[in-house]
Amino acid sequence: MILEAILSSLNEDETPNFAPIGVRTEEGGVYPLTEFEIHLYPGSHTYENLKRTGEGVVNFSDDLMAFVDSALYSKPLALVPSEKLLTPRMAQVQAFWEFTVRDFDDTREPARLRGQIIHAQHRGNFSGFCRAHGAILEALIAATRLQWLTPEELREKWPLWQEIVIKTGGSKERTALAKIKSYLQERKFMVAEQLE
Ligand SMILES: Cc1cc2nc3c(=O)[nH]c(=O)nc-3n(C[C@H](O)[C@H](O)[C@H](O)COP(=O)(O)O)c2cc1C
């Protein structure tokens, strides 16, 4: 599954850099893992920094404005020192993973980076933003509003929701979407092939 996090890394002048990045994990969400993968497009500070320094922090935050500010405005975010790395982490996050780069394969685009988690902390029950959750909510809302939707409208939107869930969700998210699909099929609102 892919969780959307804010990655901190160190610029060449030793200032911190923050950027949202999708972190590919097994089913465990933000909870203790040893490894993860990220896909990095060339041209970002994050790409250069991780390649050069071999370390970074995955910060799991529910602060949407921090995502917008770091993605579009390079705004510095409140930070605190890491436990094990030179790279600082974000202050007030629900969870973080300090990691070292185990493998950086830049022969592919996007590059594949494997991170080895060397120190992690988790607070509360936040399990990380996942795009599949938004897609499931949209599909579910549509399923409760069938009286106002035409089958064509639903057919048009379904492939995008399905693609997001398949790409970013885990088994729980795929099961949730399958249940919505069964509901729609039982009501003969859409036939099976239309939802493929
Ligand atoms: C939710 C979200 C997830 C993103 N995931 C990735 C990703 O997995 N890989 C990537 O290369 N860029 C990803 N991006 C784009 C980078 O965050 C964006 O290019 C950013 O401006 C890079 O900043 P930097 O130059 O400071 O590293 C994502 C953006 C958002 C908003």
From TrEMBL:
Name of the protein described by the UniProt record: DUF447 family protein
InterPro entries in UniProt: DUF447_C (IPR049288), DUF447_N (IPR007386), Split_barrel_FMN-bd (IPR012349)
Domain DUF447 residues, every copy: 4-121, 131-181
Highest taxon, organism lineage: Bacteria
